[in-house]
């Protein structure tokens, strides 16, 4: 959705539908069960949820453009994080406790973003423009922060001694949560204020159209709050559909994490691919890598607090196979983005790694 011009009809229709759906299932005390009607309900729920997430991101972008940086970026990030935490916490606390969901979702976000989305953007741009330029200095900052965040949240829990297995102790989890928030905060300041020129293709171009009116800003603010509240309220029904779908097809536990990751990444993914088609690969990289950093930097601490308050175990450490894929992904991203120029081969290599990740989820 464009942030300029008339407000798209879908940006208010889907939030309205989500509220009506929640009121309806609450009034009827409906609980999802696998049946013909149940699967029709599941299809409608997924369509409305996806549309509402798109609407929330659109309204956050409208408001973010008006309030400027760094608050605009922070607002957009917090909006997506609220949606992600609501979905993860609800599924984790469902009838079948999923202690690995936060880990699976974070890992899925990194793999989808750094391989699937980055690869597709580079391939689409390369097919149309042969080669595209990006800011190597900005990419280095992205990847250095992502490397540290991914290591301390997804790999280090396997090698600590205070608690056995892929689990941090309460003290360790608290320390890591503070460290990730601090690192993300400094990165956000660097990106939006201190070294903003590292992350834009043309430092002299800030906007591509007129600013939204005050009336539009007020309406977008209200619809953003409604959209976020609606997603949070429907998260319980979404978790029931995920559990039933996974049981129906015999999907592995990581399937739920992939579904949550796809739901929250879809709006930014569409925007990133569109930017690559307009020969603005830098914006694509900003959206893609920014999503993965925000997911670890904000979602992990939020889920850690929820797990601590509700006395639930939080498994973060990856199995050996997935650690190898994570290391391969980060190394490949450094090689791809470090040169400052991309072509279709870089994109294809990333997509091959993404295909390997998806295949191994179902055939480990």
From TrEMBL:
Domain (Sodium/calcium exchanger membrane region): residue spans on this chain: 39-192, 220-362
* Gene Ontology molecular functions: potassium:proton antiporter activity; sodium:proton antiporter activity
Looking at the UniProt entry, the stretches that span the membrane are 12-30, 36-59, 71-94, 106-129, 141-161, 167-189, 217-235, 255-275, 287-308, 320-337, 344-363
Q: Which Pfam families match?
A: Na_Ca_ex (PF01699)
* Protein's UniProt keywords contain GTP-binding: no
Give the location in the cell.
Membrane
A GO CC annotation recorded here is: plasma membrane
Instruction: Write out the entry's keywords from A to Z.
Output: Membrane, Transmembrane, Transmembrane helix
Q: Does the keyword Coiled coil apply?
A: no
Q: What is this protein called?
A: Ca2+:H+ antiporter
């Amino acid at each position: 959705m464009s942030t300029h011009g008339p407000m798209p009809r879908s940006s208010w229709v889907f939030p309205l539908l989500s509220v009506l759906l929640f009121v309806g299932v609450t009034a009827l005390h409906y609980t999802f069960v696998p049946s013909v009607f149940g699967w029709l309900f599941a299809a409608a729920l997924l369509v409305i949820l996806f549309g509402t997430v798109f609407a929330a991101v659109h309204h956050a972008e409208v408001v973010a453009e008006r309030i400027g940086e760094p608050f605009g970026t922070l607002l957009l990030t917090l909006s997506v994080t609220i949606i992600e935490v609501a979905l993860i916490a609800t599924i984790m606390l469902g009838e079948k406790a999923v202690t690995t969901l936060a880990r699976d979702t974070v890992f899925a976000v990194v793999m989808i973003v750094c391989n699937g989305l980055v690869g597709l953007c580079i391939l689409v741009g390369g097919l149309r423009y042969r080669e595209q330029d990006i800011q190597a200095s900005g990419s280095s900052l992205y990847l250095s922060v992502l490397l540290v965040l991914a290591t301390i949240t997804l790999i280090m829990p396997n090698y600590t001694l205070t608690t056995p297995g892929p689990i941090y102790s309460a003290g360790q989890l608290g320390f890591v949560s503070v460290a990730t928030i601090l690192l993300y905060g400094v990165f956000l300041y660097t990106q939006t204020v201190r070294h903003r020129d590292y992350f834009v293709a043309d430092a002299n171009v800030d906007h591509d159209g007129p600013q939204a009116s005050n009336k539009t800003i007020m309406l977008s603010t209200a619809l953003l709050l409604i959209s976020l509240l609606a997603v949070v309220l429907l998260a319980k029904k979404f978790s029931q559909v995920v559990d039933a779908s996974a049981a129906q097809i015999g999907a592995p536990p990581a399937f739920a994490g992939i579904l949550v990751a796809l739901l929250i990444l879809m709006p930014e993914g569409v925007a990133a691919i569109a930017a690559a088609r307009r020969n603005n690969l830098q914006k694509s990289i900003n959206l893609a890598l920014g999503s993965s950093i925000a997911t670890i930097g904000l979602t992990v601490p939020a889920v850690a607090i929820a797990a601590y308050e509700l006395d639930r175990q939080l498994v973060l450490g990856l199995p050996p196979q997935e650690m190898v894929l994570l290391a391969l992904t980060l190394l490949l991203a450094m090689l791809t983005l470090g040169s400052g120029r991309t072509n279709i081969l870089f994109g294809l290599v990333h997509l091959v790694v993404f295909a390997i990740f998806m295949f191994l989820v179902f055939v480990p």
